[in-house]
């Protein structure tokens, strides 16, 4: 987004929005006589999917337990356009309307990795980057029994391009 600096008004908000994100650039001028050298720019991203009832998303901390083996974590590899690179991360996703964080964690785990598990713990909503984004997440610990047949050969949801 381009803003003509000559047209800037004191404490004016400039917005760009789509269905998922609203990006806000707030231009604040210092107290007293305003000059371009006093201008401060603050960028923020706001999730439009948050209904105010809780977190926007879940981050799943999947612990796979198998007899005769040490407990392990499952991570996924996803391409992230803002980074222009792949990222190794915990499975995660947006909470659907009417869905609890625990239900979302189970669904996201199945979609992204094919594994099924039982939610054990759920954090309150926390912000991972409050200086930039209004996005909040619940961290959900999911226990996966690696000895049961449905977890012996997991298949991720069709259409996803995620490695794990």
What is the CATH domain class of the largest domain? Answer: Alpha Beta
Order of helices and strands: EEEEEEEEHEEE
**Approximate shape:** globular
Count the E strands.
11
Q: Assign the CATH topology of the largest domain.
A: Nucleoside Triphosphate Pyrophosphohydrolase
Which ranges are low-confidence, i.e. pLDDT below 50, for 5 or more consecutive residues?
1-14, 31-36
Mean pLDDT value: 78
User: What's the end-to-end separation, in Å?
Assistant: 36 Å
Number of domains: 2
Architecture (CATH level 2) name of the largest domain: Alpha-Beta Complex
Radius of gyration: 21 Å
CATH homologous superfamily label of the largest domain? Nucleoside Triphosphate Pyrophosphohydrolase
Strand content: 35-45%
Overall structural class, as computed from helix and strand content, comes to mainly beta
Proportion of helical residues: under 10%
Biggest β-sheet description: 6 strands, mixed
- Count of alpha/pi helices: 1
Which helices and strands occur, and which strands form pairs?
Layout: E1 12-17, E2 21-28, E3 40-47, E4 57-65, E5 72-73, E6 76-80, E7 85-89, E8 92-94, H1 101-113, E9 118-122, E10 126-127, E11 136-145
Parallel strand pairs: 4-11
Antiparallel strand pairs: 1-2, 2-3, 4-5, 4-8, 6-7, 9-11, 10-11
Structure description:
With 164 residues, the protein is mainly beta. It has 2 domains: 5-47, no CATH class; 57-151, Nucleoside Triphosphate Pyrophosphohydrolase. It contains 1 helix and 11 strands, in the order ββββββββαβββ. It has one helix spanning 101-113, and strands at 12-17, 21-28, 40-47, 57-65, 72-73, 76-80, 85-89, 92-94, 118-122, 126-127, 136-145. Strand 1 (12-17) and strand 2 (21-28) form a beta hairpin. The chain is globular.
């Amino acid at each position: 987004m381009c803003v003509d600096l000559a047209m800037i008004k004191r404490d004016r908000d400039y917005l760009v929005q789509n269905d998922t994100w609203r990006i806000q650039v707030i231009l604040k001028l210092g107290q007293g006589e305003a000059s371009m050298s006093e201008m401060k720019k603050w960028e923020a991203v706001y999730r439009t999917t948050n209904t105010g009832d809780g977190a926007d998303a879940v981050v799943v901390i999947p612990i796979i337990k198998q007899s005769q083996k040490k407990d392990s974590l499952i991570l996924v590899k996803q391409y992230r356009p803002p980074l222009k690179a792949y990222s190794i991360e915990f499975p995660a996703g947006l909470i659907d309307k009417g869905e609890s964080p625990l239900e979302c964690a189970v669904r996201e785990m199945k979609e992204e990795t094919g594994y099924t598990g039982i939610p054990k713990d759920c954090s309150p909503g926390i912000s991972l980057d409050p200086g930039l984004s209004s996005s909040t997440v619940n961290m959900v610990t999911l226990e996966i029994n690696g000895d049961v047949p449905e977890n012996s050969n997991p298949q991720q949801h069709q259409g996803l391009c995620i490695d794990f």
